[in-house]
Records
---
Amino acid sequence: LPSRLVFFCPTLRMFLTFRLWRVCNPAVLCFFPRKIPTAVFLAPVRNHFKATTSLMSEQPQCKRQCKENVMKARIGTHSGTFHCDEVLACVLLRQLPKYKDAETVRTRDPKLLATCDVVVDVGGEYDPKHHRYDHHQRSFNECMNSLKPEKRWVTKLSSAGLVYLHFGHRILANILGLNEDDPQLTILYDKVYENFIEEIDAIDNGISQWDGEPRYAVSTNLSARVARLNPRWNDENQDTEAGFKKAMELVWTEFSERVDFYYKSWIPARELVEAAIKERSKVDPSNEIVLFPLGGCPWKEHLLKLEEELHLEKPIKFVLFTDQSGQWRVQCVPAGLNTFQNRLPLLEQWRGVRDEELSKVSGIPGCIFVHASGFIGGNQTKEGALEMARRTLQAASQSASNGS
């Protein structure tokens, strides 16, 4: 038997002592027969052993639980009505290993906030060294451009923007399983801010998209949907905790889906457009026509942005690609991302004409159509679509030479 068990169990000590004494003193056998029921002595021993074993097995588990409670990180934000910016800030922080299982402490008590590892949207302090990210104080006027001069955005940051500014690269790397030095991260970082975070920053800071009265109301954006998860003003139960949790789930779903789309669809489209731009001299010596090997690729945003980044001498005028039926399209490059004006429309005499008639007018076989506005046309072959673009370029060059 284990010596510790003998030492700590008085009943077992008594039983062993009695057995030894009886063996050494035969005279007492008449009073204590050899077949005395040992269960009388051993039942307490068994119970003591079970209790001791149970206690010993529970102690490490208790220690682990206490250690986890001590080590668990705490994210602090304000109580009461919640908004999209602090909800998103909490969601973003939870994508970092340190705050993955963090407790969210919703309070305005400075003493409780002081115990938190990171505080967002409350406390009246912006101090990244101590992980304090509030934007409500009078002295705060920071934007992406002021804190990162290489970034162009000048919208005042909310708590979401502050967390994204400081941790965005790490957050995206963790979500996508990339290294932090992956060049794609910088592109994604900018795209996610411009098309997701900045809107939330602006709404929370009361910055309008336009001057004057809007033509219509927008009430279905993410900030509006988060706001509707708060209790209604006349609800009997005004507790916001359940709504805050729902808001975190909603915001995480939208954020993660957006990041996934940009990484798996938007980035590949950019890469395809960039490769086509670099190969454009093989399509036509003018360097003003680009050919995409795959149809259906969203190209306008990427082409306009890449023209700036690659410092192209001549702006691109036309793109060629196949449609779903395998026929070829020639489309004009727009003058800007949000305009219907084109840099160079297809020839005026072709517009609104179709099929054989269009082939006769243009002198190009296989023509299918040219839109009435001249922004797009179709041909049965790649060579025919390319010739439609070339003829339009030649006509524009001749008009420029003639001064018209």
---
Amino acid sequence: ARLPFTWPKYADQVGEMVNYSMIERTYRYSTSEPLYPFGFGLSYTTFQYVGDTHTAFVKAGAKLKGQFWIENTGTVDADEVTQIYIGWRDPALAAPRLQLAWFQRYTVPVSKPGRGLTIDYEVDARAMAVWKDDGWYIEEGMMDLYIGGDQPLQKRRAEGTYIRDEFKIVGSAYLGKY
């Protein structure tokens, strides 16, 4: 199982109740190290993520499609909740630090060396959009992509690896209100 929220490490990491900003309220806008990050969970085994292939350029409004490989490097068959996060580099609009863009649960049998599961994924364009006064926009620019079993860039992580990659959004798009 994975945590559906972030456990703060200290009480002062939680914003004031009268401050309606999302800064420091969710993993998406947090700048401090939590006790347990969103998406954290333990397993009876370990997993290795390797070999992400995806399009390097994505037209604004289109899906990011890709594929990666996951191996169970432990001693027992187990389920893994694979999570894909994206992050904006130098956004012109206010954007989250990280965004959970895709997740899926898989039963992964113990792998023999060089054998595992090949996983296809699609990150919907709505996951790449940020809010502006009159609706959701996708802006041109570089994006970070993280694939693994928990939230990336955290001190407290489950055992295993994650993939760090990037892609570029080409052009911009207005998605409207939804």
